[in-house]
Design brief:
This protein is α/β, with parallel strands linked by helices. It is about 40% helix and about 20% strand. It is built from 11 helices and 8 strands. Helix 6 runs parallel beside helix 7. Bound molecules: adenosine-5'-diphosphate and magnesium ion.
Amino acid sequence: MPVVGICSGKGGVGKTTVSANLSAVLTNFGSVAVVDGDVVLPNLHAIFGFEPNVTLIDVISGKARIEDALYRIRVGDISLDVMPSSQTPSEVKNIQAFTNILEELGEAYDFVVVDVAAGLSKYALVPMMGCEKIYIVLNPEETSIMDAWRVRKVIDQMDVDFEGVIVNRYKGEKWAVAMAEKRVGRIAGIIRESKAIKRGWEKSYVVTAVKPEAKVSEEFYLLARRVAGENVYPRPYGKLKYILRL
Ligand SMILES: Nc1ncnc2c1ncn2[C@@H]1O[C@H](COP(=O)(O)OP(=O)(O)O)[C@@H](O)[C@H]1O
Ligand SMILES: [Mg+2]
């Protein structure tokens, strides 16, 4: 089914955070595989708390089979498959192999989420070409929105569907949501700045899996409903009291 790419202009805006947390909630809607398509800064395995031996790079270079690089992660009732990556950028030149892997995964799972490298280098463009739907993550800052706009321009020239913007680390900046909508495209998700997310990185856990009751998990749930095809929209809200809530 759909292969969903999580992209961004600027680095460090939260692609890996969104990929992991969205994937965990998407398990409510079907089977999920999440792929670390960021061979420049691969760290999806870190948020899931494991050190991989076999990775996507081994599959691309033909040294391993797809199933050897898939790691089943179970947290509470949640179960999903993670394909980690490693830093061997030369291998990613094999565009066809990357696309084939995503296509095969797309046939085996209800949802495949791909954590894509930042920007518009070949390391970002190759995984993007293997996706059917693309979301752009940005932070509520002007530079982040402008970089996202550049990515949107490129997506429009590719054979993929732009599905929307995910505003991450939101602290009540309604102006930024309005600007992102105008410049980049429709808003698919608004995810707050969250201490739980930070702690999750430090302690290697995915917040939506271990704290489904947290406000930020609810926001990921709304995003997952959208990714699953429901017609739901996030609403920008005013000043947050996020410090007290989490
Ligand atoms: N919603 C959030 N709330 C708080 N901190 C966040 C949030 N999203 C991301 N971060 C912080 O930003 C850092 C970078 O996020 P990451 O997902 O690794 O970005 P990217 O994959 O785009 O480089 C994380 O280590 C985390 O500390
Ligand atoms: Mg990342």
